[in-house]
Specification:
The chain has a single domain, classed as Four Helix Bundle (Hemerythrin (Met), subunit A) (Up-down Bundle). Helix content is 70%, strand content 2%. It is built from five helices and two strands; from the N terminus they run H-H-E-E-H-H-H. A two-stranded antiparallel ribbon has the order 1-2.
């Protein structure tokens, strides 16, 4: 049963964030032709979408391997098994929500690809809904991990790359 819940969680996440949201953006934009968008826009789109997707996938794999669980908690309801300990390293040293940061970046790539105000509006609405989810999840993490989570919040930003992550990237060059 646990494996089935995990598989459902991953499939739902993939369908919702990778396929459905860009489709909603495209539909809201009046179903524009997706042909020639120019080299600059295509490059920006590719970097944003591949970079965002890579960050999200890295986060999922890292959470599964190191956290022994899944990130999918939907407004206080466990969709798949939660991680067993607070994740603060790997992609979580970059910011507190690397999976969502990756998803938002991926979808920003879809906005650049479509280049319509309607697609941008869908992105803003999605971001607003996800902020509600983030705030709900933060309450749960404070309840589950107490001071450990508070200390993590003090040193790591919600979405922006933290100073700690920039320092790490400088040391590894």
């Amino acid at each position: 049963m646990k494996l089935l819940r995990e598989i459902i969680g991953y499939v739902l996440g993939g369908v919702l964030f990778v396929a459905l949201m860009p489709t909603v953006m495209w539909l809201a934009s009046g179903m524009p032709e997706l042909e020639h968008i120019g080299a600059v826009r295509a490059s920006i789109t590719g970097v944003l979408m591949l970079g965002g997707l890579s960050l999200s996938v890295w986060t999922i794999v890292y959470m599964k391997r190191r956290g022994k669980g899944n990130p999918m908690d939907a407004f206080g309801h466990e969709v798949a098994p939660r991680t067993q300990h607070l994740m603060t390293d790997g992609p979580y040293r970059l910011n507190r929500n690397p999976m969502l940061t990756g998803t938002l970046t991926y979808l920003a790539g879809a906005v650049v690809w479509l280049w319509t105000w309607q697609a941008a509006l869908v992105w803003v609405l999605f971001f607003s809904i996800m902020m509600t989810q983030v705030i709900s999840e933060e309450r749960r993490l404070r309840r589950d991990f107490g001071e450990e989570y508070e200390a993590y919040c003090r040193r790591t930003r919600r979405f922006k790359f933290s100073r700690r992550a920039r320092d790490f990237s400088r040391r590894t060059r």
